């Protein structure tokens, strides 16, 4: 596996293409390192898009570690997200929010999973976050294309939505723990607290919602089949959202959890036992056997339901992470000038600048 390396502050697209083509899949297709350069924050610079499918972003400020961050040998915090042009605006906002609220922003290493070779996306990350340490890995869509069953929303059926199942296969072996995050969220607290959670021997930690009607995540056929219904025997299964998880990668590998999830996906192809995308097989394997963390780490459902995406308010209690799970995404609702009230909480992290206001370098 290629090591992290120092990246030049600016790399022309042609040079970026050349460097990427030299790296073989599934090795990281792009990587960069925080260049801890002396001096102040770079001023914002707006660039014209190289592709009509990739938004234009302003450069984010460079956040520096606080005095309490320890030595350079401090263990990094690994964060994994998917990377796609359609959700890039959300990803940029999520990364900014993580760095902005972290005491030790230079301690982060990001692991982006992508389904397609999109050099314009990599170029956007480089120009928006010149100091970000990250790697990009290609997820082979063929691994799940024959395993995906049609769900109630087309976005849930995209192969990249299933990439989280294969984290243990894609990440390098020195990464033994990772925070997996969806791209439709922002963090408003120091995520190091979530990173440091004691998993107590569990393979996954996540907020758990035992008040939710767990039965609705599976069809009547599932519950009427005695063999299938016994799946949760001896467990107290509760809903958890797979868009925010701390995963023990070592335990996931050793326990063969990828294969366990795939087995349920194969059953779904034969029998219609659930309606949603990648969530139900996770529940079938892990519900009732995860480390529950505070609900403030996933204020989810802000995107409304999966069909209409109607506005929803905040749940009571403290908040460390806002998650627009559901059909409605804040950037789309803001652009349509019909935002929900909660979308204004996402807007301060939006680095997008309309192409009509762009300037050439």
Automatic annotation (TrEMBL):
Q: Where in the cell is it found?
A: Endomembrane system
Classification via InterPro entries: Glyco_trans_8 (IPR002495), Glycosyltrans_8_dom-fam (IPR050748), Nucleotide-diphossugar_trans (IPR029044)
The lineage, from the top, is:
Eukaryota, Viridiplantae, Streptophyta, Embryophyta, Tracheophyta
Looking at the UniProt entry, the stretches that span the membrane are none
In its UniProt record, a GO molecular function of this protein is: glycosyltransferase activity
Q: Cellular component GO terms, alphabetically? A: Golgi apparatus
Q: Which Gene3D superfamilies match?
A: Spore Coat Polysaccharide Biosynthesis Protein SpsA, Chain A (3.90.550.10)
Give the EC number(s) listed in the UniProt record: 2.4.1.-
Q: Where is the secretion signal located? A: 1-32
The organism is Punica granatum (Pomegranate)
Q: Which family does it belong to?
A: Belongs to the glycosyltransferase 8 family.
- The enzyme's main class, written as a single word, is transferase
Xref: Pfam families: Glyco_transf_8 (PF01501)
Highest taxon of the source?
Eukaryota
Membrane topology, as annotated, equals: Single-pass type II membrane protein
Name recorded for this polypeptide: Hexosyltransferase
Part of which pathway? Glycan metabolism; pectin biosynthesis
Keywords assigned: Glycoprotein, Glycosyltransferase, Membrane, Signal, Signal-anchor, Transferase, Transmembrane, Transmembrane helix
């Amino acid at each position: 596996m290629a090591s992290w390396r120092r990246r030049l502050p600016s790399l022309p697209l042609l040079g970026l293409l050349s460097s990427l083509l030299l790296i073989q899949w599934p090795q990281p297709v792009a990587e960069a390192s925080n260049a801890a350069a002396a001096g102040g924050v770079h001023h914002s610079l707006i660039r014209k898009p190289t592709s009509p499918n990739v938004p234009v972003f302003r450069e984010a400020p460079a956040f520096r570690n606080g005095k309490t961050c320890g030595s350079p040998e401090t263990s990094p915090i690994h964060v994994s997200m998917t990377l796609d042009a359609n959700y890039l605006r959300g990803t940029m906002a999520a990364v900014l929010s993580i760095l902005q609220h972290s005491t030790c922003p230079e301690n982060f290493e990001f692991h982006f999973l992508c389904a397609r070779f999109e050099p314009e996306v990599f170029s956007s990350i480089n120009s928006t976050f010149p100091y970000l340490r990250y790697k990009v890995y290609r997820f082979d869509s063929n691994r799940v294309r024959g395993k995906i069953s049609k769900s109630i929303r087309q976005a849930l059926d995209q192969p990249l939505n299933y990439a989280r199942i294969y984290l243990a296969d894609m990440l390098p072996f020195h990464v033994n723990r990772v925070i997996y995050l969806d791209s439709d969220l922002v963090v408003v607290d120091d995520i190091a607290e979530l990173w440091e959670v004691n998993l107590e021997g569990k393979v996954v930690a996540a907020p758990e919602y035992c008040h939710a009607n767990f039965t609705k995540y599976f069809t009547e056929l599932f519950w009427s089949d005695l063999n299938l219904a016994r799946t949760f025997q001896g467990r107290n299964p509760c809903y958890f959202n797979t868009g925010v998880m701390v995963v023990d990668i070592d335990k996931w590998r050793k326990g063969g959890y990828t294969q366990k999830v795939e087995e349920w996906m194969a059953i779904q192809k034969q029998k219609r036992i659930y309606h949603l995308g990648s969530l139900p097989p996770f529940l079938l394997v892990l519900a009732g056997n995860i480390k529950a963390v505070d609900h403030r780490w996933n204020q989810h459902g802000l995107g409304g339901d999966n069909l209409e995406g109607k506005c929803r308010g905040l749940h009571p209690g403290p908040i460390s992470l806002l998650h627009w799970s559901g059909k409605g995404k804040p950037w789309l609702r803001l652009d349509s000038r019909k935002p929900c009230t909660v979308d204004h909480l996402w807007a301060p992290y939006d680095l997008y600048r309309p192409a009509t206001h762009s300037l050439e370098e």
